[in-house]
Structure formats: structure tokens, C-alpha cells
Protein: Diaminopimelate epimerase
Amino acid sequence: MGNGELYFTKMHGLGNDFVVLDGISQSVNLSAAQIRQIADRHRGVGCDQLLLVEAYEGDDAEFRYRIFNADGSEVEQCGNGARCFARFVYDQGLTQNTTIPVMTASGRIVLQIQPDGQVKVNMGVPELTPAQIPFVSEQRQTLYTLDVKGAAVSLAAVSMGNPHAVLQVVALESAPVATLGALLEVHPAFPKRVNVGFMQVVGRDAIRLRVFERGCGETLACGTGACAAVVAGRLQGLLDDQVTVSLPGGDLQIQWQGEGQPVWMIGPAATVFRGTLIV
Ligand SMILES: N[C@@H](CCC[C@H](N)C(=O)O)C(=O)O
Structure:
């Protein structure tokens, strides 16, 4: 640290907050330690994830965007981040298009800026094969049972490009999000660690959700977590194909027609401030 400056934008999607860096107009090469410092809420700007926007050379996408958790780890996908990325490249004049294909570490996704300013995202087809999540199991099941410190925990396992465990709870307020979330994040059954969602089913078209995110702890909202929860709930026969997911930071609309189909997410993205980082 201490030998350069980087322009950044602070954004959030339902309180899941991001430092967004334009890696097209400036050169960005950050170590994991520098990302941890930027994400630090006392010694840095503070964020759940850092998003890096880059040019993409191929024909099938306009941009590439990379996602780093607050602990410095690079990850595959981020739903709230995708919406903020779309607003960022559009509002900064990096594109004039309102339909924006972008390459992520888990493949191509397509973002659509809506007339009301919200962003609709095709989040791709969920992956349910254990080895692809990755999750250690001989066969695919709707629900798995894991031993967590001697207790049997029932959960669904879904990848939205990144790995998710989804647990159903009766009362969200008293769910052991911090304790059980932290234990499951590093459970050996998830070799790349996991995001852990606690889902309360309110009706066939509504759930409440809290997510303990891999690499940063509980956040106010998790877009891929909302998608994974709807997939898990649909596969258990609990939900219809259009679901309002209420997170601590606000609501997302999630649609999933079923096996082999992509998950659609609609939600807001907000810009909070811009500034200069000393790195
Ligand atoms: N907040 C994100 C997910 C960010 C990445 C996640 N913590 C992981 O490690 O996979 C979202 O909105 O999806």
C-alpha cells in the first residue's frame, strides 16, 4: 500500500455493498491483502465484495467482471453485484446498451436495465449435480443430511455458479445464522466452502431469507442466495415459479420455471458515492 491511487464507486444492492473499480480506464492489480484492507469497515472503504470491471475480448460479451469477497478470495458469481455492475457500466457511459452480456468466472450472464431503473438478470441454469457444486455426495438428492458437530442438519445444495446450502427454518429471527452458517461454510462436504441460506417459507409465492456468505459473513442480501433458495424450495414442492424473496435489506423477485431452465432475478442497484483510494 502507499504508492498509487484508484478511482472507485461505492454501490449496493439491497444493502449488499460493493467497491466497484473500473479496470478499463485505469490499471488495477490488487493483492488479496489490499482487497481485505479496502473491504475493512474501519481501515478501508468497507464492503462485502469488491467488483472489478474489465474489457472482454470475445464476441459473446461486452465486459468481464470479477468478484472478490471481503476476505480477498476471488469467486465465481454475485447476483447483487451483477445488477450493480450493469448500472455502473451504463451510468459511467462505458456502454449505451441496456441489454448487457457479461463474462464472469462461472460463464456468461445477460443483464437488462429496466425502464424503472431496476435490473433484470438471467442468472443461468442452476447446477444440481453434487460434483459440480461442488458437494461431496455419491448421488444427487433434493435434501442431504450433514453431521455438524454431532447434530444432523438437513439442507439442499445448489450452485448458481457459486455454491449454496439452503436450510429451511420455522422462524428466521431465531435462526442460528452466525453460528451454524460459520460451521457449514467450512464443512468438508463443501470443498470450495459454501454460502449458507436460512429460508422461511411464508407462502407458495413468498419466502424470507438470511444468508451467511462465504468469505464475508451474514450480509443484508444475497442475490445468488435468493436464486438458490427458490430453486431448493421449488424442488421440494414448496414454491410456485414466481417468488418474492424478502431479505433483511429488501425484496428481490425471482422466477424459475424448473429443471433445465435459467433463474431470473429482478431487483434494484444504487450508487452511493465515488472517491479515490490510496493503495
Ligand atoms: N452477495 C453475492 C454473492 C457474493 C459471493 C459469495 N459470497 C461467494 O463466495 O460465493 C450475491 O448477491 O450473490
In short: The mean pLDDT is 97.
